[in-house]
Specification:
- The strands form 5 sheets. Strands 6-5-11-7-10-9-8 form a 7-stranded mixed beta sheet, sandwiched between helices. The chain has a 4-stranded antiparallel beta sheet with strand order 15-18-16-17. Strands 12-14-13 form a 3-stranded antiparallel beta sheet.
- It has about 800 residues and is an alpha+beta fold.
- Helix content is about 50%, strand content about 10%.
- The chain is built from 38 helices and 18 strands.
Length: about 800
């Protein structure tokens, strides 16, 4: 008997109208010992619903609970029901258990349930002999491969031409040790990355490990796109490539600005390079901000990056190493790729992984909410510094004010770490804390006030080697005047997504700024601004011919300062700018700081016009307006059951709308999954997810094993959850149809509006007063009406102060 049939018969008698997921979980709980109960909490409500519906096999959960079965518990559970209910259960299960009666019902049902779980737990996928197993496999060229060796085929079987010279070089390089080909690169790159300029050491680089403390990282239960991994969450200290690879070949490490993502990748590079000769693996540290629209794919990107350290390196040696899975790619700053190039990069990376599977890839990024193209990647969070780590970092730093540093360390240990944890647990902000504390004897709590004090500290104590010595600025400006012009520079470059400059680009932007300067300042040379930023204020630094912000958070703060100083009439344009730049706005704090600086103005001149346009455009009454709102703000919702290979947050399309519901604490869409959906949802378009052998998701694997019986058992140890339609066409020939694990259902609001009668059940469900998005909609309308009323009173009032 299948579990779905067992649970269906039970629920028809004893579920009492309860939710499917809770009833299913309770039935598992009824047959387990106390020690086994915690296992049930590892599964989501949607998983239990999927078990009940039969969309997901119970083999996985059965293997976990099999050792904790206690039939007597289940028998006692059945015994608690009335005699009449037990008699009905006997009738329902008569065909399955012929000798069941009112006296033995509990024991017999427990016996049946145990057999179902035991059988599911012992289920193992069997290799099947494919049709035509003895025929030539996956060779679209067939006999022509000997006649035309310059032809080759990709994973999908498409035939293309490859330069015979490169082909010959690749064949020769396959038997060579490729690590030696990268010796020159490693020596030069290690020499470069082994010292570091920081906020305190902007003029003279210091040895990397003299100023670095390794953050812990935490492995999430969910992969980058939301898939629930079977292994438990774990925290990793003293991170190394070996420790990461033990979890996944493909890793994304995410964290907020200044938390230490780039420093962590530098540590991984240096520690891996130190053992490259022993391991045979070559680490390559790449900055993704250099991935431009002119980049011709990942191999080209790797090659051009490595040529900076070894001009003689060849694409052939890189490709050969990739084919032999000998490279460790450390990709820094996914969020720093220009938004216009991000889609191309996602496609290039996906194609790259398919062409060269098995090479370790570690990517860092600020949280960007959506890692849709990264289904193979496991997601790690880089954790805040602990108090012990924060103290260790400060103790390592050379600081001009010894007495101030010691006082700060004492305060950090006693109170500051806990009272200002947002700053004290972030390496960059912790360093600024030290400088600010040394100057003012305190640390502000608000982010924008914190940066303001930090700038004041850097402007007045801008020579770290000379303590309180005050050097005049090259521009002859006061710190306040300098900040005014620099804030416009930052706003302009922030708008254009420019994070690095050569002198010509810097001059071009600064000349635009100086056109609006006071007459007495218009003749200041842009070069003097650059000298002040690098030599005096240390907000920027130079590497070769390029100039960079010491950290991009300074650009964000000064951009917010400029936007906050704009005329009220221009603030609506500022709001429109942030609304259009949806992708980048996820990754920084600029708008958050702007709102904190001038909250009332943001509400009146950005939020109010936005909401006015939103509800005017919806221009309906009652439910019509609500459905127009849904299509604009939440045009596509998703519902998931079981374990899926990708997951999407049900979040608003509009950046400003997301800001409003966050700042006013009226967000409700995240409660949708808890609220549930009617069964008509299964009529909507859906993706079916299955569990398949990881090694056989690539076409090339089938070339190695034309006969399924020759497949080593070790290749069947690892499985992945993938969309059934994306499986290689030969998969079912080898292994049969894989086990279904879950569903992703798409709720297209436009379809529900076009066909109201067809989807009447779903529409009625979404119009219920307690439906989360309807509640959110009503809350936003109330906020809008309040803003309108308050603004009207301000306009009509002649009083200087409105009491």
């Amino acid at each position: 008997m299948l579990f779905k049939d067992f649970i269906e018969k039970l629920s028809s008698v004893i579920s009492a109208g309860g939710s499917t997921d809770k009833f299913t979980k309770s039935i598992f709980g009824a047959i387990l010992t106390e020690e086994g109960q915690d296992i049930l909490d590892e599964y989501k409500p949607s998983s239990y619903k999927s078990f009940c519906n039969g969309y997901t096999s119970i083999s996985g959960i059965s293997k976990k609970v099999n050792a904790y079965l206690e039939p007597m518990n289940f028998s006692g559970y059945i015994a608690q029901f009335s005699d009449a209910t037990i008699q009905i259960l006997c009738t329902v299960f008569r065909n399955d258990i012929p000798d069941i009666d009112a006296y033995n019902a509990g024991d017999k049902l427990a016996e049946l349930f145990v057999s179902i779980i035991t059988e599911a737990a012992s289920t193992k996928k069997k290799k099947s002999t494919p049709k035509g197993a003895q025929e030539t496999k996956n060779n679209p060229l067939g006999a022509f491969s000997d006649i035309a060796p310059e032809l080759t085929a990709d994973n999908a079987g498409s035939i293309f031409f490859i330069d015979p010279a490169i082909s010959a070089e690749l064949k020769e390089s396959k038997d060579e040790d490729n690590t030696s080909a990268f010796d020159k690169y490693l020596n030069a790159a290690v020499s470069y990355f082994s010292t570091k300029k920081t906020l305190l050491y902007a003029e003279k680089p210091h040895p990397f490990y003299d100023l670095y403390v390794c953050n812990d990282i935490r492995y999430r239960k969910f992969r980058a796109t939301g898939i629930r991994d079977p292994k438990a969450e774990k925290t990793i200290s003293n991170v190394t490539i070996d420790k990461l690879e033990a979890e996944s070949k493909y890793v994304i490490i995410q964290g907020i600005g200044g938390i230490g993502k780039s420093m962590l990748l530098t540590h991984l590079f240096l520690s891996s390079a130190d053992h490259a000769q022993d391991t045979g693996y070559t680490p390559i540290l790449l900055s993704l901000k250099d991935y431009k629209d002119t980049t011709c794919g990942m191999v080209d990107f790797i090659w051009n990056s490595m040529k900076e350290y070894d001009s003689e390196i060849t694409q052939v040696s890189i490709i050969a190493a990739l084919q032999q899975k000998q490279l460790i790619l450390l990709l820094d700053g996914l969020d720093e790729i220009q938004s216009s190039v991000r889609y191309s990069f996602d496609q290039d990376l996906d194609a790259f992984i398919k062409s060269y599977p098995g090479n370790m890839i570690v990517i860092t990024s600020r949280p960007v909410y959506s890692f849709i193209s990264y289904s193979k990647f496991s997601l790690f969070d880089i954790l805040e510094l602990t108090k012990k780590q924060s103290i260790e970092l400060i103790e390592k730093l050379e600081f001009w004010d010894i007495e101030g540093k010691n006082s700060f360390l004492e305060a950090l240990d006693k109170t500051l770490y806990f009272s200002h944890r947002q700053f004290a647990s972030n390496p960059l902000l912790l360093t600024i804390m030290l400088m600010t504390y040394s100057s003012f004897g305190e640390v502000p709590a608000k982010m924008h006030v914190f940066y303001s004090k930090a700038y004041e500290t850097m402007a007045r104590l801008h020579d770290a080697s000379k303590g309180s010595f005050k050097r005049p600025l090259h521009t002859k400006l006061t710190p306040e005047e300098f900040a005014k012009y620099f804030s416009q520079f930052c706003a302009r470059t922030y708008k254009d997504e420019i994070l690095e400059f050569d002198s010509m680009l810097f001059n071009a932007y600064m000349k635009k700024v100086l056109k609006t300067a006071a007459p007495e300042h218009q003749n200041i040379a842009p070069r003097d601004f650059l000298l002040d930023l690098t030599d005096n204020l240390c907000i920027m630094y130079r590497e070769g011919e390029q100039y960079y912000f010491i950290h991009r958070s300074f650009q964000e703060y000064f951009a917010a300062v400029y936007f906050a100083s704009e005329y009220d009439a221009n603030l609506e344009k500022v709001g429109s700018f942030f609304e259009k730049m949806k992708h980048r706005s996820y990754t920084d704090r600029t708008f958050d700081m702007l709102y904190d600086m001038i909250p009332e103005k943001i509400e009146r001149f950005i939020f109010l016009p936005y909401l006015e346009k939103l509800f005017t455009d919806c221009s309906g009454n009652g439910t019509d307006e609500y459905w127009e709102f849904l299509e604009r703000i939440y045009p596509c919702l998703t519902y998931e059951e079981g374990s899926t290979g990708e997951s999407f947050l049900n979040e608003a399309e509009s950046f400003l709308y997301r800001c409003i519901i966050r700042e006013k604490s009226i967000e409700a869409v995240s409660d949708i999954d808890e609220y549930g959906w009617p069964s008509q949802i299964y009529d909507l378009p859906r993706k079916v997810w299955v569990e398949a052998y990881s090694e056989f998701l690539e076409y090339r694997t089938y070339d190695k094993y034309p006969d399924p019986e020759s497949i080593p058992e070790r290749l069947l140890d690892s499985t992945s959850i993938v969309e059934e339609d994306e499986l290689p066409y030969k998969y079912s020939d080898y292994f049969g149809r894989p086990e279904q694990t879950g569903l992703t259902i798409t709720i297209d609001i436009s379809e529900l509006r076009k066909n109201p009668h067809r989807y009447i059940v779903l529409r009625n469900h979404m119009e219920l007063p307690e439906f989360p998005i309807l509640q959110e909609y009503n809350n936003v309308k109330q906020y809008y009406e309040m803003l309108k009323k308050r603004t009207q009173l301000e306009i009509e009032s002649d009083d200087l102060f409105d009491d």
